[in-house]
Amino acid sequence: MQAASPPRTLLIAAHPDDETVGAAIHISQTPEIHIVHVTEGSPPNPADALAAGRYTREEYARARRREAVRAMALAGVSADAITNLYFIDQRVSFELEYLTVRILTLLEKFQPDIVLTHAYEGGHPDHDSIAFACQSAKKLYELDHPKSIFELMEFTSYHAESGGIKTYSFLPCKDQEEIRHYLSPTERALKTRMLQEFKTQQKTLAPFMLPEVEIFRPAPGYDFRRAPHAGRLFYEYFDWGIDGATWRDLARDAERSLLNTRERVA
After folding, report:
1. How far is residue 132's CA from residue 255's CA, in Å, rounded to a whole number?
2. Is 4 a member of any domain?
3. pTM of the complete model
4. What's the pLDDT tens digit per position in 244-262?
5. 13, 235, 8, 264: which is closest to 125 by C-alpha?
6. Is residue 1 part of a domain?
7. What is the CATH number of the domain that holds 70?
8. Alpha-helix residue ranges (DSSP H) falling in 75-175
9. Cβ distance 215 to 171 under 8 Å?
């Protein structure tokens, strides 16, 4: 009997390093995987670039892409299996409709069995934007391909908790089963080495440097018009040019526009 082919997996992450934080070991064990970074990982404010010893936003973006290639190489993923969509870090929220169309194009190209991406949890506006766009693109894709339904799964990133940051954990979601993979010592060492390849991000990645588990779950059916949790969202502690209420307004407008476009085409 011929062995079943491994599932084709498309991992869609906001920034170079998110895939390593959420799914490094899973990536290393998934032969048919393609990694998509939506942004270059370089925000408009040059402070991050300067702090990383880079003089321009573009130089910082190139450094982050090179780091991702080196980290993925440790997991056995070639540079040819990594795509960057070149959106601007911290600005994806303002291009939700366009991002959905870009992801829909990727779904048409790769025809995945599994799409693995961010949860909607208020950690970073780009993370929430990718969660919105993946759910929206899935709906549109399956209307046109009713026999090509894929599974939308999520990996952990981070969210606010008690005024700080909570890592390697999802926000609670009723009746949502989680798949937990506790890392062996060898796997912990590999994931740590992969995280260490992101030289420009060591301060940001410090809370993730003792990995013990990777957790996944089927994506819940979010209502993006509602906040992911009560209280202040994690990204609202920073001057990133957007707050939760504005993000939800943008998501509502994008959802309405995508629906109207679909109805005109139909």
Report:
1. 9
2. no
3. 0.95
4. 999 999 999 999 999 887 6
5. 235
6. no
7. 3.40.50.10320
8. 96-110, 125-144
9. no
Q: Contact, 114 vs 26, CB < 8 A?
A: no
Q: Is residue 3 part of a domain?
A: no
Q: If we measure between CA atoms, which residue out of 162, 161, 155, 117 comes closest to residue 136?
A: 117
Q: Could you tell me which residues come within 8 angstroms of residue 220 by beta carbon, excluding any fewer than 6 positions away?
A: 173, 176
217-222-226 Cα angle (round to 5) = 135
Domain contains 2 = no
Amino acid at 227: A
Closest CA to 74 of 189, 180, 155: 189
Query: Can you give the pLDDT at residue 4?
Result: 66
Number of structural domains found in the chain: 1
Of 29, 28, 33, the residue nearest 10 (C-alpha) = 33
pLDDT < 50 stretches in the chain: 1-2
Edge-first strand listing for the sheet containing 9-13: 82-87, 33-39, 9-13, 114-117, 151-155, 213-218, 179-182
- CA–CA dist 172, 251 (Å, integer): 22
Asked if 70 and 82 touch (Cβ cutoff 8 Å), the reply is no
Local structure of 213: helix, strand or coil: strand
| 74, containing H or E segment | helix 57-74
Q: How many CA atoms lie within 13 A of 244 on its CB side?
A: 19
Burial readout 10-19 (b: 16 or more C-beta within 10 A, e: otherwise):
bbbbbbbbbb
End-to-end Cα, the chain, rounded Å: 43
pLDDT score recorded for residue 119: 98
What pLDDT is recorded for position 106? Answer: 97
- Domain that includes residue 175, residue range: 9-265
pLDDT at 1: 43
Number of helices (H), then strands (E), in the chain? 8, 9
